[in-house]
Predict the 3D structure of the following.
Amino acid sequence: MKYFILFGPPGAGKGTQAKLMADKYNLHHVSTGDLLRKEIAKGTELGLRAKSLIEGGNLVDDSIVIAMIENEIGSHPEVNGFLFDGFPRTLEQAGSLEEMLDKRGQSIDKVISFIIDDDLVCRRIQNRANIEGRKDDADMNTIRNRIDTYHRKTEPLIEYYKQKNKYHEINGEGKIEEIFDCVCKLLD
Ligand code: ADP
């Protein structure tokens, strides 16, 4: 079983690349954002808690997303591997993921990081608001908080994975197909 992490700020194109990669390499795409939005749509207790945090541009509790990931990796023996999109987002989450995989005698193969400027991120998210209708994409303060949260809580993971020699960067500002070509070169 292979494990890949897609890394980068909100709006970097992780979800778009994840879908292409999942198809080509038979990987199970795990988006914690999508999983949380499903809980919100179902109106579960967990969804209720996540809703206000997400709409304010804040992270959902580590314990919640970690439990979701544990559940996912235990339930897809048919795939070649897993593709994490939007996880881990904190050092705590990264540590838990490592422990989870360790117990299975497995580990992360590669972290693929999309490099993109904050201004472009902002424009992409605003554009996506009209397409996907996500509340957290429609409000400028929420967008700013998400970008700020990324810099404060998620960016420290770059050093964490660099030290493990797992960190790879790709320019996230090009065309979807160009970026996918770079991703494939890394995976092939
Ligand atoms: P984006 O990449 O555009 O931020 P996501 O769908 O990945 O979109 O995430 C949407 C929101 O869901 C985040 O702003 C955050 O509130 C919550 N979320 C998603 N993944 C995590 C995570 N690993 N840890 C904590 N909160 C998360």
